[in-house]
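Please complete every field before forwarding. Incomplete forms are returned to the sender.

SECTION A: IDENTIFIERS
Entry label: holo-357
Bound molecule: PBG
Molecule representation: SMILES string

SECTION B: INPUTS
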Amino acid sequence: MSTSTPPLRVGTRGSELALTQTSAVADALALAAGREVELVRIRTEGDRSTASLASLGGTGVFAAALREALLAGACDVAVHSLKDLPTAPTAGLSIGALPVREDQRDVLCAREGWTLATLPAGARVGTGSPRRAAQVRLARPDVEVVDIRGNVGTRLARVETDLDAVVLARAGLARLGLLEKVTDTLDPDVILSAPGQGALAVECRTADLAGPLGEALRAIDDLPTRLAVVAERALLATLEAGCAAPVAAWAHVVPATAAAPARLELRGGAFDPAGAQGLVRTGGVELPGLGEATEDPGNALGQDVAVSLARELGEATAVELLDAGAAAIAGLPTPDDVGAPDLPGVLDGADGTDARP
Ligand SMILES: NCc1[nH]cc(CCC(=O)O)c1CC(=O)O
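SECTION C: PREDICTED COMPLEX
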């Protein structure tokens, strides 16, 4: 490595989870860029303030400070948990890389090795996420959902004190080396994960995509991850929902076989926070030639085309959910609400706000 090149500055939040996952991305980026890296800790309003997150403007507060640091030149890239990143684009910034994502599923960490199915009636299950609360109530109307806040360690500690179980993202526990706390990995048919869960986003200034940094970012980008999360986030954006809404989505690429081309499959859900009902719709799109050697380039799908197909799949699945009444069920904004204040409780207890990853 050349000593004349200054280190690449990687912006991160300061929590243990954020530092752990940013370090892993920074190491990969250092290899790809052939450059030293340096972590720059950014204190976000959400970390600093004890005010309710709803009063600070919701879950975007964590991402906003990192984005400001990037635009101000205080760092060269910023690493976010994708599920905490608002879907609205920021002028001048781009997601330069989406590294291979971890297992996206939610897990239960319970006393006595209980699973969601074997929890005793009346068990106290902690989560601050309306999406998780709604689905736990649907699956187990006989347990009590308790609204909790705090980082992963704080929430796990409550299982030993006043709760019987908590629901967390498997990816966060994996990165922290805490998988031994998991007593049940929740099947997507039972608890569907948040859009983008398990994925990290490396954001950069759009202008840098054209230079060597852009090349390094492309080297750590994973196309199947990108296609999956584009579909999931297009669904979320089309529902006009944020990361605090009781909306779930999971997409994944099913690789090609001798008989069939690769496919992107998406499952999306919108849930009544009280657990009375949930709507799920699934869809898929063929990706002919994806990932195949380009002996017949005319037949192989370009990356941009594949990304467009993924976005359309997310939008179409969201429209199916809306046609089936998702907005009313999940308390999402409807055309009549335009200009109206946010619905009560929608920002409160967000996936992204309660966890401080
Ligand atoms: N702020 C919530 C948050 N954001 C990202 C993760 C976990 C890791 C991920 O989904 O990539 C968590 C913790 C949790 O939901 O248990």
